[in-house]
Amino acid sequence: MTALKDILYKVAIESVKGTTDLPVGKIEFDSRKIESDDVFVAINGTVSNGHDFIDKAISLGAIAVICEVMPAVVHEGITYVQVKDTSLALAHMSANFYGDPSAKLKLVGVTGTNGKTTIASLLYQMFKKAGYKVGLLSTVKILVDNKEYKATHTTPDSLTINYYMNEMVNEGCDYCFMEVSSHGIHQKRTEGLHFTGGVFTNLSHDHLDYHPTFAEYRDVKKSFFDNLPKTAFALTNSDDKNGPVMLQNTKAKKRTYALKTYADYRGQILENQLSGLLMKINEQEVWVRLIGSFNAYNLLAIYGVAIELGIESQEALRLLSELESVSGRFQFIVSSGNITAIVDYAHTPDALENVLKTIEDIRTKNEQLITVVGCGGDRDTTKRPIMANIASTMSDKAIFTSDNPRSEKPEAIIDDMEKGVEPQNYKKTVSIVDRKQAIKTACQLAQPNDIILIAGKGHETYQEIQGVRHDFDDMKIVKELLEQLNK
User: Fold this and answer.
1) Phi and psi (nearest 5°) for 174?
2) 468-471 vs 462-465, strand pairing mode
3) What's the pTM value of the predicted model, to 2 decimals?
4) Neighbours of 14 (CB within 10 A)
5) Which parts of 164-299 are beta strand (E)?
6) Which run of H or E residues covers position 37?
């Protein structure tokens, strides 16, 4: 067992009742998981306040409590440690408990609105191909070299992060690539981690259900770079107006990538086809299997990280050419009836517009583009009409449907979307609440050579309705429906 005093290293303590010289089993912030000899950290969360569950934790066997406010009644034989911020305390305690694993890895964090999953996942893929043992913490999954675990959050809690990084260290991993969300930064989940580098992708309309203003959303992202050490690198998209902002106060080595402006890692798209991209990166040509300008940015970021981590330029380009697309990110099939179906995670206005622009660039204009799109429930409502406007303007036919309605009525979400459709586009839209029926309708409307885009869920294999997750896989469903129609 580890002594409480050892896992409190770097924690800003305000007061203590009891002794910290006692062995503890493990750390928990969920009172339901407490067992004998555990430490309970009372987190003041967005849904509930852990301070309300201190007595429950003690009744289940907690021998120490970390809190921001000392309880009015304290129990004999229980140690209470008062700190200013329990989320920050949890981050440091988690790192200490697992032996500070991030210091034993080359850890690179990727943040921004769009592209985090693609960049982190393809960096994992690239460094595996280069012969290294690698870890990945992403929205889609957690990978400890070749072992796969299910992901529940874009950026997991501090305990989970340090647990899996410790597993990576034990497995002999050299690198870890990690998505860093604004929620994760704001809730201190990344505090206490030792980053070798950070990447900024872009910033657009998202998470304004959590952050009260866009400025706060931007500044939370910026704080990640502000906290990077001078030994790290900070790589940012200088084509995004917020890119230079991320570098303003960082102590890290500043690096940039861009398609339109001067940058350390400069790219140019020479050809853009359904089979891939021909790019020029720092005056060297490379053919890659990914599609679209948004992926060109992702590939530039990946190339930049590879160079900063010591991979030679020609080797980095060779590895780029071998990378394969990430599940649910512009993933496409062509049916035997010659209908192209594309599944993409695009769930923000900017991401949806990028995907539709990419399709516009590679289509012949002799086919119709049918877009199936929904918006999530219990999330930022302001983006619903914007996304509907983009879909109806940039498609020949737009079908509005359910995404993950969660606790909201899908009809109400679709009503919000319909408000964004301009009069000249009314006849191009149809609303179908049932997502499978919406995809089926798109397949029935499609003629040979047509393109169907199914946006919003990407890699997800479920649909959440009234708190229940139902099996639902966009790619699997559209494949089955197109096969049935061909028969």
Assistant:
1) -95, -35
2) antiparallel
3) 0.86
4) 11
5) 175-179, 195-200, 233-237, 253-258, 265-273, 276-281, 284-288
6) none
Write out the binding residues for ATP. 112-118
Model confidence at 267, pLDDT cuts 50, 70, 90, reads very high
Sorted by sequence, the CB contacts under 8 Å of residue 459 that are 6+ apart come out as 117, 139, 140, 326, 327, 328, 329, 345
CA distances from 43 to 30, 46, 49, 50, 68 (A): 9, 9, 6, 5, 8
Query: 71: closest CA among 85, 84, 58, 54?
Result: 54
Would you mind telling me the total number of residues written for the chain in this entry? 487
3-state class (DSSP) for residue 6: helix
What is the DSSP annotation of 40-93? EE--B-SS-BGGGGHHHHHHTT--EEEESS--SS--TT-EEEEES-HHHHHHHH
- Sequence ranges of the binding site for meso-2,6-diaminopimelate: 379, 403-406, 456, 460
Contacts of 47 (CB under 8 A, 6+ apart): none
Report in angstroms the alpha-carbon separations of 271 from 140, 297, 378, 409. 29, 15, 40, 44
Q: Spell 1-11 as b/e; 16+ CB within 10 A means b.
A: ebebeebbeeb
SS3 for 352? Answer: helix
Phi-psi region of 152 (alpha: psi -120 to 50; beta: other; left: phi over 0): alpha
95 Cβ contact partners less than 8 Å away, ≥ 6 residues apart: 101, 102, 158, 162, 192, 193
pLDDT band at 207 (very low <50, low <70, confident <90, very high): very low
Question: Tens digits of per-residue pLDDT, 220-239?
Answer: 999 999 999 999 999 999 99
Q: How far apart are the first and last CA of the chain?
A: 63
Region 297-301 average pLDDT: 98
Residue 249 pLDDT class (50, 70, 90 cuts):
very high
For residue 415, what are its two tokens? 């009503």
Rounded Cα distance, 436 and 441, in Å: 9
Give the whole-angstrom CA distance, residue 164 versus residue 169.
Answer: 9
Residue ranges at the known binding site = 31, 112-118, 154-155, 181, 187, 189, 379, 403-406, 456, 460
